[in-house]
Design brief:
- The chain is built from 2 helices and no strands.
- The protein is mainly alpha-helical.
- The chain has one domain.
- The radius of gyration is 8 Å and the shape is flat.
- The two termini are about 15 Å apart.
């Protein structure tokens, strides 16, 4: 599981329409669905 700071950074990148890599890390490392 990714740490809270990293999680928040990934969410910021995701909301901003960030990179596919960041999106993959979100999906793999922390899935809210």
């Amino acid at each position: 599981m990714i740490d809270k700071g990293r999680e928040e950074q990934l969410w910021k990148d995701y909301r901003r329409g960030g990179s596919d890599t960041a999106r993959e890390k979100l999906i793999v490392g922390y899935s809210p669905l």
